[in-house]
Input
Amino acid sequence: GAVVSQHPSRVICKSGTSVKIECRSLDFQATTMFWYRQFPKKSLMLMATSNEGSKATYEQGVEKDKFLINHASLTLSTLTVTSAHPEDSSFYICSARDPLGSRVGGYTFGSGTRLTVV
Amino acid sequence: SQQGEEDPQALSIQEGENATMNCSYKTSINNLQWYRQNSGRGLVHLILIRSNEREKHSGRLRVTLDTSKKSSSLLITASRAADTASYFCATDTGNQFYFGTGTSLTVIP
Output
């Protein structure tokens, strides 16, 4: 139980276009999801906390208009990178808080999305 | 930033030796967790220690937590080449979940 599916796993897009990444909790309801960004050989930086039915809470320094987060249902959160530029190229990982704690640690992570902007 | 800091940033040891990594954080926590990540891959949960615990063991892993110093350590005993990976601590504040800066461990066969 407590599986999070993240899609796509890889995406290449042109500069100026927008890219949407989906994060779905498959067998549990996730009221809270988190979005992270990871640069090569670096740690995961929390970008924003997404709560179902309300606006996301962004970490300091993260552009809200650049990284649009929508958590319209208890099983789906999306991250849209708008007007992507090469510096947005990165590994993006979502995580969902599992309220029933069926996974050790209480958090389940998606497998990540490798975004390359050319 | 609420991100925790780990040291060392990189650690290289011989197979069979022990590896110790340290994590410091800034805020009160519900629990602290350690994760492992192989290059370019997803995260693997290793161990969780709650704020009211001081030490925990799991196989070759030993984790300590000192909430007064806001620090934790991960000890991997009798290391193996397969332990080569990046290790991250992560703090659960109840509202957010922050990762440390990570330690890159290389175990030389």
